[in-house]
Structures are given as structure tokens and as C-alpha cells.
Give the backbone structure.
Amino acid sequence: MINFRKLAGENIASLVPYEPGKPVKELERELGIKKAIKLASNENPLGIPPKSKEALISFMDELNRYPLGDCYYLRQKLAIKLGVEKNNLLFGTGSNEIIELLIKTFVKPGENVVSFFPSFSVYGIIAQANGSICKWVETDEDFKINFEKIINAIDENTKIVFLANPNNPTGTYFSYDNLIYFLNNIRDDIIVVLDEAYYEFVDAQDYPQSINLLNSYVNLFIMRTFSKAYGLAGFRIGYIIGNSEAIEMLNRVRQPFNVNMAAQVAAEAALEDHDFLRKVIKNNRDGKIYLYNEFKKLKLKYFETQANFILVNVNDGKKIFNDLLHKGVIVRFLGPKLAPYIRVSIGLPKENEIFIEKLKEVLEV
Ligand SMILES: Cc1ncc(COP(=O)(O)O)c(C=O)c1O
């Protein structure tokens, strides 16, 4: 009889799939409640940019056509905005697809990628599905990245190093000096991918403005997304910036119409919606200050964030996560290795208040 587990192979059969945050509607249905709030997936609480909405409405009648395979108009606009050439860019169905394309294109089965722990689990899932592995390098106290340890973990089979900056789920970041030290101390045939999914939220002065480094480090790549600050998570669109020859290799592997047309139209308009982006960043900054203050009052240790979420120590993350769920607040529990913590996305002021109110109830303070 056919054995599908065997057919898929051990690497697939033993994969632990990515667990997304629970959707609001699902929780409401399960618990028979209304007005649940979701602060679990670092989405944009302000919705989609008004300019994207307008552009989508005007474009609706053209959605019977296949998308532009090369994201022509979006590419043009983004290249100008970033000050790079058009052939330095590749778009994907979210940055998730780009992680997959990078691994498919450059990492052969048996080879490896390197990242630090805790970070974005998708690097490991895709590596394993590809027959390769992700070597996770432990961080130091308070999740500080130890670049020396990462340099030591790199071996002759390492093809890519993924560095999320700011990092998910900690919200912490590393500086320009750290990045330069790292780049100068690894082989120049290793691809370094800076995953800057939360770039737009950063306000740290010593955060690397990485685009300026692309000419000096041919092996450096920067990955960003429209899912977070630009509010387009449901459309699935992200991009990578880097050397044109490498981009050309990725282009050969991607599906011809990998980015749907609604996503292209929405993203292009989002780039023009400066007002929306300003509001998003202000909402995030204000929410962060509010939540820091509340955590201080509750004597909970939290990590200062450069992103749109906060990691906070509540002693028993799983219990607090479950108790909050039953009160209609969805946050994120991050598994047994991060047992004391929950991660909460910064929401609208009202959502942040409800979260704190319910948190106080479940902490019984
Ligand atoms: C660090 C990091 N990289 C990449 C992604 C994926 O984003 P996208 O929606 O573009 O696939 C996320 C999403 O949560 C993330 O936290």
C-alpha cells in the first residue's frame, strides 16, 4: 500500500508546521463570544491604506487578466524610492515566498542556513522542507545576539545566514557596528539576508541603513514586506533588494505570476500614502509607550521593541495566553523554549487598553 509519509521523506514527515495566530472569527465561533481582539500576528491595526483601497476599486474590472509577471509599475516606483536599480529588486508572495526562493535557489539538500534563536521559525521550516537544515545559534542573556557564536557556527556547507533586524519575536535589534563586524568576519561567498520586515517602525539611531552597504558587500541582501507598516498582510507581498545576478537566479526559480495583481496595485498605491504611514508609526509609538508604562506598573519584565509588538515575561506564557483567549484577547504564546513569555502586537489605543484590562484580570492583580 502507498505510504505517503515514506514517499514525502523523513524531512517532510517530521516537519512541525508554522502555527499562525488564531483568526478573530474562529475564536468568536469557538467561544460563542463577540468583539474578540487579535494582537497576535503583528498586523496593522489601522487597516489598509486609503490610497490602496481607492486604487483597488478602480482596478477591479481588470482582475480577469493575469498579473504583470515582473511587477513593472511597482518595481519602477520602489526602485526610485529606494535609490536602487530596477534589476536589484525581486517581489514575492510575502517575504515568506522570498525565503523559500532563496533556499530553493541557493541551498542544496545537505547544505545549511544559519540564524539565531529565537527568531523567525519559517527559515527552519523551509530549510527542512528543502532537505537542508537551519543551524539555530543561541542568543545570550536577554536575547542579545552573539555574532562571534554565529561566525563559529558557519561551516563549509553554510550558504545563507538569515538575520532578522528588528528580530521577531523579541523586538530587539542589532547595530550598524555589529553588522559591519559580522560582514567583515565571514567568507564573502555566504549570502547574508537582513530580514527587515519591521524596518518602518525602527527609531534606534544606530540601526544600520543597510541599503547604503549593498555596493560594498555583494553578498548582502535586504528583505522587506508590505505586510506590517503598510497594512497589506492579506495581499501577500514582500521584496528583496540585492545584487542583480543573484536576483536573476531567483527570477528563474519563481513562478511566472507569483505576485497577484491586486497586491501589486495595493502596494504601489501604499507607497504614495505618506499620511497613512505617518499615522501607523505614531499609533505604534504611542501604543508602545502606553504598554511599557502598564507593564512597569504590573512589574512585568518586557523587552524594548523596535517593531510593532512587545515580548513580555508573564511567568507562565501558555496559561496567560489561554486565559486571555477565553476573555476574547488573542496574543501569541511562543512554545516551550520561551515558556515564560507572551508576545503582544501593538494595537489601537482601545485594543491596548482592553488587553491590559484582561491581562490584569488573568494575572489576578
Ligand atoms: C521577521 C519576519 N520576517 C518575515 C515575515 C513574513 O512576512 P510576510 O507577510 O511578508 O510573508 C514575518 C512575519 O511575521 C516576520 O516576522
Observations:
- The mean pLDDT is 96.
- The first helix runs from residue 4 to 8.
